[in-house]
């Protein structure tokens, strides 16, 4: 039984099965990069997507279409069908043993129609545990499947696609690349339009490390003085900023940034300032803002090849005191977060 604030429905799941690559793949060990195997990425990320009925799918079972396409995509992306191991040398370095065992797949049916969800299709979605069943042991870091997919058919012909993937294997962009390959296989492609590239050695740290400046994102903050809220003590709520809200915020930007500042920078600066005001920390308390910055593309100078699907991002930090964030206008925070 899956409850929501105004909707209740039942989900009937079949037993989970392992989907192996459609063809034989190499059995080998592949090292992850030093970005991949950070302690902070050793977890599984849930994703859920809702699809309306498409007349082109008449007479076709979405679960079977996705299942067959997944097996084909796992041939070029065979590391996803393996298992993570730790090198037994005290370093805890992660490697993928490409065993070809496969990924977990669950087929399900729900007695609900797409349109019944109405305005409920926004995070946080309280029925996630019914639409992405947590198979005992499947969320372990080591020796467990790296992907879990559940396809739930709806009464209207639409379906819900839910996925959990191990973050050490890919970032969001890498996962999108893989799922695009699955979609292409479903449309009859013989090979992905973008061939996957492993090349994790490109993001290995130098030995010994040679940092050229202080990386304050790695500071150990002993006492946050109540400015760090535990994840299990947070209230999750969605806020939507449309054209009117963004225009209102833009009016608070300094004239030289008003027309060029991005929506992302504008919202980030606003949230950083507003959160600081709401928490009311000590005036001299350091307040931090961290944003994900991609290492892909020509601007970064790393020259990662097209098709690279590992983690390729960093988390730089900006720091200001409470007093300056609260007393200065929004433009002060914008100058920090603007790239």
TrEMBL record:
Keywords: Transferase
InterPro entries on file: CAT-like_dom_sf, Plant_acyltransferase
GO MF term list: transferase activity
Family: Belongs to the plant acyltransferase family.
Annotated signal sequence range: none
Name this polypeptide is given: HXXXD-type acyl-transferase family protein
């Amino acid at each position: 039984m899956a409850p929501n604030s105004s909707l209740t429905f039942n989900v009937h799941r079949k037993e989970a099965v392992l989907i192996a690559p459609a063809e034989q793949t190499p059995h080998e060990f592949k090292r992850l990069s030093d970005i991949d195997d950070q302690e902070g990425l050793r977890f599984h990320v849930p994703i859920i997507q809702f699809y309306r009925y498409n007349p082109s799918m008449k007479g076709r079972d979405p679960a079977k279409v996705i299942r067959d396409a997944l097996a084909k995509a796992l041939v070029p992306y065979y590391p996803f069908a393996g298992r993570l191991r730790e090198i037994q040398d005290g370093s805890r370095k992660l490697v993928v043993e490409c065993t070809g065992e496969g990924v977990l797949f669950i087929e399900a049916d729900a007695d609900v129609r797409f349109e019944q969800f109405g305005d409920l299709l926004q995070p946080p979605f309280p029925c996630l545990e019914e639409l992405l069943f947590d198979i005992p042991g499947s969320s372990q870091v080591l020796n467990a499947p790296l992907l879990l997919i559940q396809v739930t058919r709806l009464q209207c012909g639409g379906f819900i696609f839910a996925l959990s993937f191990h973050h050490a294997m890919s970032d969001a962009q890498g996962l999108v690349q893989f799922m695009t390959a699955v979609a292409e296989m479903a449309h009859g492609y013989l090979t992905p339009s973008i061939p996957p590239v492993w090349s994790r050695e490109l993001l290995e740290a130098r030995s010994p490390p040679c940092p050229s400046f202080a990386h304050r994102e790695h500071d150990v903050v002993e006492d946050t003085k109540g400015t760090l809220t535990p994840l299990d003590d947070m209230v999750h709520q969605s806020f939507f900023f449309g054209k009117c809200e963004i225009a209102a915020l833009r009016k608070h930007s300094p004239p030289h940034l008003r027309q060029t500042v991005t929506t992302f920078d504008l919202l980030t600066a606003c949230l950083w300032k507003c959160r600081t005001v709401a928490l009311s920390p000590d005036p001299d308390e350091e307040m931090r803002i961290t944003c994900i910055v991609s290492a892909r593309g020509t601007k970064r100078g790393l020259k990662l090849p097209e098709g690279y699907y590992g983690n390729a991002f960093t988390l730089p930090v900006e720091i200001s005191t409470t007093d300056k964030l609260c007393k200065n206008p929004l433009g002060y925070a914008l100058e920090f977060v603007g790239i």
